[in-house]
Amino acid sequence: MLDPEEVRKDFPILTREVNGRRLVYFDNAATTQKPLQVINAISNYYMYHNANVHRGFHTLSQEASQMYEEAHEKVAKFINAYSWREVVFCSNTTEALNIVAYGWGLWNLREGDEIVLTVMDHHSSMLPWRIIAKLKGARVKYVDITDDGYLRYEQFEELISEKTRVVAFPIASNVLGTINDARRIARLAHRVGAIVVADGAQSVPHIPTDVRELEVDFLAFSGHKMLGPTGIGVLWGRQDLLESMHPFKVGGDTIKDVTLDDIVWHDLPWRFEAGTPNIAEGIGLGVAVEYLTRIGMSNVREHEKTLVEYTLKRMRELEDVEYYGPRNPADKTGVIAFNIKGLNHHTVGSALDLFGIAVRTGMHCAHPLHYRLGLKGTVRASYYIYNTLEEIDYFIESLEKIISLKDSLRSKPAKEVCTG
Ligand code: PMP
User: Fold this and answer.
1) Which residue in 93, 153, 182, 361 is a FRET match for 47, CA 20 to 30 A apart?
2) Is the predicted ipTM greater than 0.95, yes or no?
3) Aminotransferase class V domain spans which residues (predicted)?
4) How many angstroms is it from 31 CA to the middle of ligand 1?
5) CB-ligand 1 contact for 382 (6 Å cutoff)
């Protein structure tokens, strides 16, 4: 069992006040807060070990290199990779997905090939393939969702054909929270020899991840969404595929040797980590995954499920609240997108801020999904290990107050209405 009150002691930022109220941080799908262990690991690195990696024989450089490599090993263990060499550090999920599109897609796709994406995709997963498709004359097809936010699996069967070379999708939606059946999709794609690229930005931080069980070929995720620092992300890939790929960015550290006629790429993962990497951030991510492992990812998942179940139950009591995505908490992560009928999502977001509650509003880098749902935007509350049922009670009470002030909020800015 996870005790959020114990966890909170590691997060100084949660003692902050915002607009005179204790901060309630419900914007975890955008980025999570960082525990002292991660913050201290980063400052410890800069205070006592800082040097460039892989370039020096001096002691500090060797220490920094070892710490940075160990961080790869920790991440590999966290996702049950076969080897740490399959773990490429980059800046974030967006970069990881671009590495695949430009490193595999650009070199392997031909005119007439097909790429199957979904309307649920985050732009970071969708747009690189759309650009590559344009460059190579390939065609993009989209799997739709049901009205309650599940992927329409029968469409994968219809759309995947001998022409399909790539299937990309999110393991969990950043808007609806829907947890998709990666293995089912991967098996359909592999029947025709397509590669499977999974966006794990909203799954790896929240549900136990075993790349061997997922059966996908690539998995991308971001450190900053799982207690780690910004500027560090991960591309996990099947070793044979990574070995067959060309680096997306090239330069220092990507090579074993260069002559004027030839380039010999470096061993994995270094050939994909061009230039001086984000060393401190990588080390910080290693500590973040150790922290999550100590808590236990099954406990993280169960905690979020409890929070979601409670929120949906409380939200159903509010007539004016409409929420989107699966109704069954077993099928979603700790992400709840909703609207208050008759109020703009940004108005609700700024009113909640006056109560000290941080949520995200807008289309959350998933415009096609919002258009599919007929929405101009949503308010998104997203949970993590330090959120509590008491915070949800306060959130619901605040929503009730906002609903009671609805008429005034329609005509005046939230700041003028939600005082006191
Ligand atoms: N995919 C999904 C599903 C996401 O939620 C996000 C972050 N909002 C990303 C990709 C992109 O992550 P990053 O901004 O860290 O590259």
Assistant:
1) 93
2) yes
3) 24-395
4) 9
5) no
